[in-house]
Amino acid sequence: MSVLQTLKERSGDCCELCKSTTELSQYTIPPSLNENVDNDVLICKICLDQIEERTDMDANHWRCLNDSMWSEHVAVQIMAWRMLQRLRNEGWPKDLLDMMYLSDEALALARATGEDKDESEKVIHRDSNGVILDNGDSVVLIKDLKVKGSSMVAKQGTAVRNIRLDRDNAQYIEGKVDGQHIVIVTDYVKKT
Ligand SMILES: [Zn+2]
After folding, report:
1. I need a labelling partner for 6 at 20 to 30 A (CA). Which of 42, 132, 150, 161 fits?
2. CA-CA distances (angstroms) from residue 168 to 98, 105, 149, 173, 176?
3. How confident is the model over 1-10, as pLDDT tens digits?
4. Neighbouring residues of the ion ligand 1, judged by CB less than 5 Å
5. Domain containing 49: what range?
């Protein structure tokens, strides 16, 4: 069964965050590099657009997290936690966060995208042109890159999809080249 089908089955064909049944799609929570049901949630377009900041946040829409934060699925818990963090200045999300339970492992992953940090303390990653990079972005290498600890050379022009940012160091991102997980210096990449 495909990941999408599994998601549809477990959710009863509705958005796992707000229960909407329209325009659903599979969403891989950043910074996951692999698609599997543990990293994915089924979400609607309204949730997706706000998560990806394509539209303004509608705080009231996210009252739905009151229910979905109790999901048994870790990926759903993580997305609920991240959105509550983004909205914490509204007040009520803080109360929900206080009630929420995440395992240590899930909490570490939930924090990986820095939603719980204030803007000023966020680590900002920029490509060689100064363009801001996000988890999940695609980049190309602008020079040949020796891969540490192997004889592999990642060639200039190689595309790296679905990158993840090193949350402590603005100069490093990670991604997969030829199936191998590598660390790349941001000066060597261009966002596509
Ligand atoms: Zn939704």
Report:
1. 161
2. 25, 18, 22, 10, 20
3. 899 999 999 9
4. 15, 17-18, 20, 44, 47
5. 3-119
